[in-house]
Amino acid sequence: MSKSHGIKDLTAFAVDTIRMTGEAALSYYGKGGDQVKFDMALVTETELHVTELFQTQLHEHFPEHQLFENNIVATDYTHDEKRYLWIFDALDGVANFQAGIPIWGISLALLENFWPILGVFYMPATGDLFWARAGHQAFWQDKPIQVSRQGQISDESLLLTFSRFHQHYQSSFPGKIRNFGCTGAHLNYVAMGRAEAAIVSNITYKDLAASRVVIESAGGKIYKLDGSEFFLNEYLDGQDIAEDLLITSPGALGQVRTFIRHTR
């Protein structure tokens, strides 16, 4: 880290700024048009406003830092301030957001020379803040969190999935299966032990960048459905992630996979 901008300074900026953008997003929350099933105009306006607010804050505090957009072109390592790359996702859970359902969030990750060092996920409607520095403790608010240490999957266990999950998988999972409509929330609920696992689909690098840091710091991992480890940095070029992914603890991986069978 540079002398002027240590990890504590960068963390404070990330937390303060994501709270600020969250307050801005709340002014649009739940205001989808009554005559439409999904108000894309509201979502677009919110994303543009919130992203612009973040860009303004980033330029004021760290003008030489970079902001991830659709892909990374330059991959040269450097020792100057340009080694920092922020990944900002203005709205995760857009259907919930426009409908007034509180499970949606904003995410912010920081890379140093393309390596993740910080992740923050904030849910403005509930006040939940998840954050972690890579290789250190993960937190919910100021409380340390970790993935579930439950030894056996039971009828009290929770598996979080995506919409249309049952069209593509046969499941004998003995516990509850739920979809809350927000990828970041799903990952962070696994990170804090509220759910044993999550399966996510139709995602991009930006969707996972921040919560990946939290889940790994809490003792979890992102896997492919065949049980092999998934490497998110392979998608820094912005390409869509074509396969579904499983997020859980290493100890629960084998059990969860025995309950899920891909049918498509």
Task: Characterize the structure shown.
Helix 1 packs antiparallel against helix 2 (40-61) and helix 5 (183-191) packs parallel to helix 6 (205-217). With 264 residues, this protein is an alpha+beta fold. It has 7 helices and 14 strands. A hairpin with a 2-residue loop joins strand 3 and strand 4 (115-123). The strands form 3 sheets. It has a 7-stranded mixed sheet with strand order 1-2-3-4-5-6-7, sandwiched between helices. A 5-stranded mixed sheet has the order 10-8-11-13-12, with helices on both faces. It has a two-stranded antiparallel ribbon with strand order 9-14. The protein is 31% helix and 24% strand. The chain is globular, with a radius of gyration of 18 Å. The protein folds into 2 domains: 7-145, Fructose-1,6-Bisphosphatase, subunit A, domain 1 (Fructose-1,6-Bisphosphatase, Chain A, domain 1, 2-Layer Sandwich); 158-262, 3-Layer(aba) Sandwich (D-Maltodextrin-Binding Protein, domain 2), CATH 3.40.190.80.
